[in-house]
Amino acid sequence: MPSIAQASTATPKPSDQRDDQLAAEAPTLVDLLAAIPHAVDTAMRAALPERYTPETAAQIAAGMIARLAAPAPSLTAAQSTLTADIPLGGWMTAPVESALRDIDDSCSDAENAQLPFLAAKTVVIDYRSQAYGRRTEVWLDYGRTTGSLSPAKARIVLAAMRTFTDQFEAVIAFAEESAVRDFEGDPEIAAADREADDRRIRAITEGRA
């Protein structure tokens, strides 16, 4: 007569029970996102009381939630495929570009439209690699300037950029508070002021003649 296997009655180890309990009690991403507004509000009251407003804290929290809840970015086939670049003596991918175009005040809108504000791509330099080796870099373009970074250095730059975005958001919030007091000048007073400047300059020029 076939036997019926009995369920195991082995007592779980205490360490296994603790691991299961910790796993069950671990907050989910939804829990963490829900806690961010209160955490940011509390932290800003304590660390930045002179800049704290409920609106500013809410804006910062919203930005953090948006970044954490966003799906992980992915690369297109072109952005993850190395293609030969003969003049370089190596290989490079198509760049990842920001939708925002360049913001250089010294250039026209049309000129800025030709360049992304930020762009990055992977570059492999292996010209005569037996003699000179093989080197992988991340090229980061910011406007008309390019920085060539090792992957490790690129990680450091990425961390700094993430930190800066929070600081930049705080600067924007402070500027928004100041902008409430902005106003347009009086065109007639401005014209009179320019005329006074012109007269002063003419008097100085004539006095030197």
Description:
The protein has 209 residues and is of the alpha+beta class. The chain has 7 helices and 6 strands; from the N terminus they run H-H-H-E-E-E-H-E-H-E-E-H-H. It has helices at 14-25, 29-47, 54-69, 109-112, 129-132, 151-179, 187-208, and strands spanning 83-85, 90-92, 96-97, 118-125, 135-142, 145-149. Strands 1, 2, 3, 4, 5 and 6 form a 6-stranded antiparallel β-sheet that branches. It is flat.
**Terminal Cα separation, in Å?**
127 Å
Strand proportion, as a percent range, falls in 5-15%
Number of domains: 2
Low-confidence stretches: 1-9
Q: Please state the overall shape, judged from the principal axes of the Cα atoms.
A: flat
Overall strand count: 6
The succession of helices and strands, N to C, reads HHHEEEHEHEEHH
* Helical amount: 40-55%
Radius of gyration: 30 Å
Largest sheet: 6 strands, antiparallel
- Count the DSSP helices: 7
Instruction: Give the rounded overall mean pLDDT.
Output: 86
Indicate the structural class. alpha+beta
Task: Set out the fold topology.
Layout: H1 14-25, H2 29-47, H3 54-69, E1 83-85, E2 90-92, E3 96-97, H4 109-112, E4 118-125, H5 129-132, E5 135-142, E6 145-149, H6 151-179, H7 187-208
Antiparallel strand pairs: 1-2, 2-4, 3-4, 4-5, 5-6
Helix pairs in contact: 2-3, 3-6
Quick take:
The protein is of the alpha+beta class. 51% of the residues lie in helices and 14% in strands.
